[in-house]
From TrEMBL, chains A, B:
Catalyzes the NADPH-dependent formation of L-aspartate-semialdehyde (L-ASA) by the reductive dephosphorylation of L-aspartyl-4-phosphate. This is Aspartate-semialdehyde dehydrogenase. Coiled coil: none annotated. Pfam families: Semialdhyde_dh, Semialdhyde_dhC. It is an enzyme of class 1 (oxidoreductase). Homodimer. Gene3D superfamilies: Dihydrodipicolinate Reductase, domain 2, NAD(P)-binding Rossmann-like Domain. Phosphate binds at residue 80.
Length: 316, 316
């Protein structure tokens, strides 16, 4: 709702839907007081665009919304790899919204910020392989996760034991190499999202990605150490220039002044921040990059609203 | 001193040397009270093994110690890449202590834990390339750094601003892709230590390493996401078995039980912990690993005392 308001998204009427638990609550939007309603199969009559957040919501109601004539933009993992559903990062593959069949999927947060940066590099020099390690904020796991980090930090500073509830282990003053569930191949689902969604967004199955995703005791803002093997030469200076003029990207890369992207600085921003751009001498054409973004904004809400903006432009 | 005591290192007399600031202070070792003396050029008469910590100490006094007949084990960066000085991780290249000329260098903390794990893989299948991203604890930057993390965490939890003194930016609830100074090639000195020291310890200049080193708000215990390209096939199960029987390594790799190495669990331990071992399908023979160790112990004190143990064995 903040992003819709800030970007002055053209809204005739905003309808807020949630579970029965939240129904009846009042929320301010711009200068209006809106009341949350319980989501029901017939809630979507007259709705043009339905923004879904949360995995169970779209599983239960996305088809109802589509039947009622709404276009669903879904932030969950339910439809992302469905071949009949476009997976869209507006800076990367905006044209993919055109072939939707009622549902457009919003990618995984850590994938979005990586795809925004990989796209110009791929167009310029061809990406053959990516090795990525993430430093992911707790906000991606919800409000209770933020509270858990704060509470555990307080407890440990006071000499008490941590009491993990949301995360499988202590998250305060620790890092945990485990997001989402483990799969048959011993990768986590989060890691395989980065592998598979990146190919779909870039529209190129030959882009090989291997990932290690790690939760860090950061409140908000995901960071990624990305190693890229290219097919053709792209020098760091040229990569810097190319990325600086690419949509949605801010290059912060002045090491001598200690200037590089930081999660606390990306918090509350809509751009993807890139720095520490340097040549990887261990392969013919290699680059190392450090990429940071606000996972709740560009990694979720902002990207979803940008998709909605593409739709309104198409409707005009 | 804790490590010397715990490992029952054979000591005739322990002499404690420091700057004039600490001289006169009394410290307990086993059941004895020892008085710290100011280091002077003639302090090393009768000393067999001199353990140096801190960069300025060995720059000023290492040669005096050598002249007095002591063998210096130096934890600083001063002599590590000197071709006349062995750089030793006892699990990896113990035989290198033999060719010392009075000084033996203790490698960088993040390099030690990686080398312990790479060595058996290199012997079994040949390593061609390593991409490593680190998650490094603040303890590596000293006691003031630990206090800074605690104080900043308290301040931020209380709604105050962070006040960075030791680190270039806020470290609490943040990650900083910057350890040590930046070099001409835009890598940090810490990153190039991992590149160059690894080759020297493994005794193989063909092992190509590229690194991104990152400070995380962890009190103690460095973590590393390591991607390894091998020359020959080594399946994850075989790597697990191989590493489990290799010296100094504990394999913790049962994802279905949420068991993998964690810095809070490695804190206070001397082993190098390895988990998240899985095949990297993006190259012919690739592995991903997650490696954690206590950077003050295996990354510094324990490794230095292990080198001293090699010397005492040689002296017997």
């Amino acid at each position: 709702m903040d992003v819709l308001s800030e970007r002055r998204f053209p809204i005739g009427k905003l309808k807020l839907l949630a579970t029965s638990r939240s129904a009846g609550k009042q929320v301010k939007f711009n200068n209006e007081i809106l009341t949350i309603e319980e989501t029901k199969p017939d809630s979507f009559q007259g709705v043009d665009i339905a923004l879904f957040a949360g995995g169970s919501a779209s599983k239960e109601f996305a088809q109802d919304a589509v039947k009622a004539g709404a276009i669903v933009i879904d932030n969950s993992n339910n439809f992302r790899m469905d071949p009949s559903v476009p997976l869209v990062v507006p800076e990367v593959n905006p044209e993919d919204v055109k072939w939707h069949n009622g549902i457009i999927a919003n990618p995984n947060c850590s994938t979005i910020q990586m795809a925004v940066v990989l796209k110009p590099l791929h167009d310029a020099a061809g990406i053959s392989r990516v090795v990525v390690s993430t430093y992911q904020a707790v906000s991606g796991a919800g409000a209770e996760a933020i509270e858990e980090l704060r509470e555990q930090s307080r407890d440990i500073l006071a000499g008490k034991e941590a009491n993990p509830q949301v995360f499988p282990h202590q998250i305060a003053f620790n890092v945990i190499p485990h997001l989402d569930v483990f799969l048959e191949n011993d990768y986590t689902k989060e890691e395989m999202k980065m592998v598979n969604e990146t190919k779909k967004i870039l529209g190129d199955d030959t882009v090989a990605v291997t990932a290690t995703t790690v939760r860090a005791p950061v409140v908000n803002g995901h960071s990624e150490a990305i190693n890229v093997q290219l097919k053709n030469e792209l020098l760091p200076d040229d990569a810097r220039k190319l990325l600086a003029k690419s949509p949605g990207i801010l290059v912060i890369d002045t090491p001598k002044n200690n200037e590089y992207p930081l999660p606390v600085a990306a918090n509350g921003r809509d751009e993807v921040f890139v720095g520490r751009i340097r040549r990887d001498e261990t392969v013919e054409f290699g680059l190392n990059l450090w990429v940071v973004a606000d996972n709740l904004r560009k990694g979720a809400a902002t990207n979803a609203v940008q998709i909605a903006e593409l739709l309104t432009k198409g409707m005009l």
